[in-house]
From TrEMBL:
Keywords attached to this entry: Electron transport, Membrane, Transmembrane, Transmembrane helix, Transport
Location(s), subcellular: Membrane
The UniProt record lists the keyword Iron-sulfur: no
Superkingdom of origin organism: Eukaryota
Spans through the membrane: 12-33, 54-76, 88-108, 129-150, 156-177, 228-250
Any one of the GO CC terms: membrane
Protein name as annotated: Cytochrome b561 domain-containing protein
Highest classification ranks of the organism: Eukaryota, Metazoa, Spiralia, Gnathifera, Rotifera
Organism: Adineta steineri
InterPro entries, per the entry: Cyt_b561/ferric_Rdtase_TM
Domain Cytochrome b561: 1-183
Keyword Ribonucleoprotein: no
Chief place of localization: membrane
Length: 253
């Protein structure tokens, strides 16, 4: 049983961060103007928010389950911090910080204030900071465990390196698409303002029509399809790296 719990720990952590965590974080950053067909909402909420919440909830749940598995494997005792293996020691420390961040994130999500509250910026800042710390440390922990495990050590390092490289590439691609979204939004906002000025007396105190810009970005079907395609490709590639990683974990003695 301890043998299975040890490997189950690695399995759920890989699923949690390589698949659900990474995709959920990308949706929070790049999925805010997505449409599915003509729909911008799902069950009364924005599509990006529903998907982000679902994926990160699964990621948090699996992370806590993985923490439980390793506690069972160690019979409720903390890992030996006096170990001579520095990679294992660092893995334990990073994992502990991730667990703390996850617990704080759950607390923040349960007690977040209204979106229009004057204290909302505190939630937004805290949510992003703790989420970013946990996500970045997950990369560190994958590399640390790859260096720690003895069987197929090189294969593990290659898998984690390729997956990390892919995440960097997909972020760059999303940023390029995001740039074109902003450019299209600014152009539409400018055109709308010019139209208003031509149709009505000039009002120098008028504010830019930012909503027009937002709708322009959402209405750009080509960019919307590109983003959906990138999300799909990222999910497929993450699963593709996840499977051999898990198989190698279960071959460890």
């Amino acid at each position: 049983m301890p043998y299975n719990m040890d490997h189950a720990h690695g399995t759920v952590m890989i699923l949690s961060w390589m698949v659900f965590g990474s995709t959920g974080v990308l949706f929070a950053r790049y999925g805010r103007v997505l449409q599915l067909g003509n729909q911008r909402q799902l069950l009364g909420k924005s599509i990006w928010f529903q998907i982000h919440r679902l994926l990160l909830s699964l990621s948090s749940l699996l992370t806590l389950v993985g923490f439980y598995f390793i506690l069972v494997h160690l019979r409720g005792q903390w890992s030996n911090l006096n170990t001579s293996n520095k990679a294992l020691l660092a893995h334990v420390i990073c994992g502990s910080i991730i667990i703390c961040c996850i617990i704080i994130q759950i607390w923040l999500a349960l007690y977040r204030c209204h979106p229009h509250s004057r204290f909302r910026f505190i939630f937004n800042f805290s949510h992003r900071i703790f989420g970013s710390v946990a996500f970045c440390l997950s990369f560190c922990n994958f590399f640390l465990i790859a260096f720690y495990l003895s069987i197929q050590h090189i294969d593990l390092v290659i898998i984690v390196s390729l997956w990390t490289t892919w995440v960097i590439i997909v972020v760059i691609l999303f940023e390029i698409v995001q740039y074109h979204y902003r450019k299209a939004s600014a152009l539409m906002a400018l055109n709308t303002r010019v139209s208003h000025m031509n149709a009505e007396p000039i009002n120098h105190n008028a504010r830019p029509d930012t909503e027009a810009g937002t709708h322009a970005a959402i209405g750009n079907q080509r960019l919307n399809k590109i983003k959906l395609f990138l999300f799909l490709i990222h999910t497929i590639i993450s699963v593709a790296f996840c499977i051999p990683f898990i198989v190698i974990i279960w071959h460890q003695t």
